[in-house]
Write a structure and sequence with these properties.
Shape: globular
Helix content: 40-55%
Number of strands: 0
Oligomer: single chain
Number of helices: 4
Distance between the termini: 21 Å
Radius of gyration: 11 Å
Order of helices and strands: HHHH
Length: 70
């Protein structure tokens, strides 16, 4: 995997989900859309990633999936 810009590469949630799985190994993220094509699928992936972060005990303030998806 390789990244160009955070905003573009994290927009569909896949890179963020992969990063979270790497840094929280052996935990895995529950079912997510591996090939998001429409904005709602990208938003769902971001919500799954953000929920995972919250469940790990990290407090997120003023961050939502709609802020992160273009």
């Amino acid at each position: 995997m390789h990244m160009n810009t955070l905003k573009e590469d994290f927009a569909d949630g896949l890179m963020l989900i992969n990063l979270l799985e790497i840094i929280t190994h052996p935990k895995t993220i529950p079912k997510y859309n591996k090939h998001p094509r429409i904005p709602i699928q990208k938003t769902e992936n971001m919500n799954i990633a953000l929920d995972f972060i919250k469940n790990e005990g990290i407090k997120l303030v003023n961050i939502g999936a709609s802020d992160l998806v273009k």
